[in-house]
Amino acid sequence: MTTLRLRLIPLRELRLDECKYPAKDAPTAIGGYLFCGRPVKSGEIYCRKHKAICQQGRIASPARGIPYNRSGRKQLYSRPDLSE
């Protein structure tokens, strides 16, 4: 299996068939970001990897191992331990 690397494309050079996930801050680039640029399926805006990252919260459940807090809501981040 071949791993495709980020191409880091500025907004102006991004084509319809390339991933539009903002992968890196670039203050000098138009829009302020460089985008992934990996190939995408027809009708999609993100590559497989970035689509999975963006959908984690929507398809998450306790059965899939996503941590929940005591109120039953999804825990989207963990709080740092400030006791030290």
How is this fold's topology laid out?
Elements: E1 9-10, E2 22-25, E3 33-35, H1 48-59
Antiparallel strand pairs: 1-3, 2-3
What would your notes on this structure say?
By secondary structure, this protein is low in regular secondary structure. It has a domain at 9-64. 14% of the residues lie in helices and 11% in strands. The chain has 1 helix and 3 strands; from the N terminus they run βββα. It has one helix at 48-59, and strands at 9-10, 22-25, 33-35. It has a 3-stranded antiparallel beta sheet with strand order 1-3-2, with no helix packed on it. The longest helix is centred in the middle third of the chain and has 12 residues, at 48-59. It is globular. The protein starts with 8 loop residues before the first strand and ends in a 25-residue tail after the last helix. The relative contact order is 0.16. Residues 59-63 have low confidence and may be disordered.
